[in-house]
Design goal:
Blueprint (H helix, E strand, L loop, with lengths): L10 E6 L2 E6 L7 E2 L4 E10 L2 E7 L10 E4 L6 H13 L2 E13 L4 E11 L8 E7 L11 H11 L8
Parallel strand pairs: 4-8
Antiparallel strand pairs: 1-2, 2-3, 4-5, 4-6, 5-9, 7-8
This protein binds zinc ion (ZN).
Length: 164
């Protein structure tokens, strides 16, 4: 982001509120790019006793992850996560419970992770190319972002956590 979205003047590194931020060079405009983390909902989808991990079209061959997405205006995180599971896997959320909230600094996101018990027949939308349904005891979480939620969920079920 190099120009002010409000007045089109250049942005410059400026000390605002105790941190260096990109702010409008026109002091009268006063725009500040706060760059606050954006909330993202993530689903540990449990379907027929297995956890469904999906591979996004743009991801490398062996990378599978949780269903995630941004919230719509006016939507609760719980509604949002159920909507994402329906959109991406065509499964209906039967029960949702919060696993935890996790900062993900690399993407400047805040992950709100849910366990979603889901029913129906899996059908992937165009964002996804493949999925794996894995029994919980065989899951290998990754050590960042949504993987930390998966690890907490496994611990909560009394399972040993073996990171990838
Ligand atoms: Zn401006």
């Amino acid at each position: 982001m190099r120009f002010c979205p409000r007045c089109a003047a250049p942005l410059a590194q400026t000390e605002v509120g105790g941190a260096s931020r990109m702010a409008c060079a026109d002091v009268a405009c006063g725009y500040v790019h706060w760059d606050n983390p954006i909330p993202v909902v993530a689903a540990i989808v449990e379907h027929e006793g297995r956890v469904v991990l999906a591979r996004n079209r743009s991801w490398p061959e062996n990378m599978y992850g949780l269903v995630t997405g941004f919230l719509e205006r006016g939507e609760s995180p719980q509604q949002g996560v159920a909507r994402e599971v329906k959109e991406e896997l065509d499964l209906d959320a039967v029960a949702t419970s919060l696993v935890g909230v996790y900062p993900f600094e690399r993407k400047n996101e805040l992950i709100i992770a849910y366990h979603v018990e889901a029913a129906g027949a899996i059908s992937l939308n165009e964002e996804l190319v493949d999925y794996r349904a894995i029994v919980p005891a065989r899951l290998r979480p990754w050590k960042f972002g949504t993987g930390l939620a998966l690890a907490d969920w496994l611990r909560g079920r009394g399972l040993e956590v073996n990171f990838l």
